[in-house]
Design brief:
Layout (H helix, E strand, L loop, with lengths): L10 H7 L5 H11 L6 E5 L5 H7 L4 E5 L3 H11 L5 E4 L15 E5 L7 H11 L6 E8 L4 H13 L6 H4 L4 H7 L4 E7 L2 E3 L1 H9 L12 H15 L5 E3 L1 E8 L1
Parallel strand pairs: 1-2, 1-4, 2-3, 4-5
Antiparallel strand pairs: 5-9, 6-9, 7-8
C-alpha cells in the first residue's frame, strides 16, 4: 500500500487517541533554536496536527504538510481558525514549499514513512542556511510491563508490526545517515493516561493495526481489553513513554 494511504479512515481515532508531545520538548525547541513569534516552521507528515498545534503555541507560523486527505482535513477542522496555521497538500519528498524559507523542519511520528534521501534533499531546499531538522516520536518504554504486553499482542495479531516508534531500532542507522553521522537524541518523560476505550483506540490508530474486517479482529480487541483490565486502576491506565527528539549534534 502507498504509505500516504495507510492512515485513510483513521483520522478521528488517531486524533482522539494519540498523545501530544512533552511540553519540555517544545520548550527545548524554543530555547535551542529561538523558535517563536516570527519563526516559520514546516511540520512534515503533520497528520491531524498534534505537533502542529504545539508549535503554533510557541507563536510560530506553521506550514503543515500532509499527503493524506483524511488526516489533513481533520487538522484543518481543528486548527483552521488559527491565522498562523497553513495547510499544505504535499509529501516529505515534494513539500510544495518555497526555497530557503524556513527556520525549522519537524517530522513527528512520520520519518519512518519517508524516502530519507529525497527528504534530506527537500529539507536542504526549503530550509534557511544552517537551520535545523528535528525528528520526534512518542516512544513507549519497553521496561514497563504494560508496554511489553502491548508489544506481545501486536506481534501476535499484526503482521505489519515492526516495533514501537516505527521500528526505531532498525531505523536508527537511517536516522544517523540522515544527519551525516552527527546524531543527537534527547528524551523527555511524557506518560499518557487512557480510559479503556481510548487505550483500545490507540492501538486501532496504528497503521499496522487489524481492522474490523480482519478475521481475528474480535480476538485482538478481547486481548487488548484484558490487558487494560490487568493494569488499570479506577478505570484508568498509565502508559510510560518518552517524547524523543533526534537532531544534528
Amino acid at each position: 500500500m502507498d504509505n500516504t494511504k495507510k492512515f485513510s479512515g483513521k483520522a478521528d481515532v488517531y486524533q482522539q487517541a494519540r498523545s501530544s508531545y512533552a511540553p519540555e520538548m517544545l520548550a527545548f525547541i524554543a530555547k535551542t533554536w529561538q523558535i517563536g513569534e516570527g519563526s516559520l516552521v514546516a511540520d512534515i507528515g503533520s497528520g491531524t496536527g498534534i505537533l502542529t498545534r504545539q508549535l503554533l503555541g510557541l507563536g510560530a507560523q506553521v506550514y503543515a504538510v500532509e499527503p493524506n486527505a483524511d488526516m489533513r482535513a481533520k487538522a484543518e477542522e481543528l486548527l483552521g481558525g488559527d491565522p498562523n496555521f497553513v495547510s499544505v497538500n504535499g509529501t516529505a519528498e515534494q513539500t510544495n514549499l518555497p526555497d530557503h524559507n524556513f527556520h525549522l523542519i519537524t517530522a513527528a511520528a512520520a520519518f519512518h514513512w519517508f524516502d530519507a534521501v529525497r527528504f534530506k534533499r527537500e529539507c536542504e531546499r526549503i530550509l534557511m542556511p544552517g537551520a535545523p531538522v528535528l525528528l520526534a516520536w512518542n516512544d513507549a518504554r519497553l521496561s514497563a510491563e504494560v508496554n511489553r504486553g502491548r508489544e506481545r499482542i501486536f506481534r501476535k495479531y499484526c503482521p505489519n508490526f515492526r516495533g514501537f516508534s516505527g521500528g526505531k531500532d532498525e531505523n536508527h542507522a537511517i536516522k544517523r545517515a540522515f544527519f551525516d553521522g552527527a546524531l543527537r537524541e534527547t528524551r523527555f518523560p511524557n506518560p499518557v493516561t487512557y480510559d479503556r476505550q481510548t487505550f483500545i483506540n490507540r492501538a486501532l490508530s496504528a497503521s499496522y493495526s487489524l481492522i474490523e474486517t480482519d478475521a481475528r479482529f474480535q480476538d485482538y480487541l478481547t486481548e487488548l481489553g484484558a490487558l487494560f483490565d490487568q493494569y488499570a486502576v479506577d478505570g484508568k491506565i498509565v502508559i510510560p513513554q518518552d517524547s524523543v527528539a533526534f537532531f544534528r549534534g
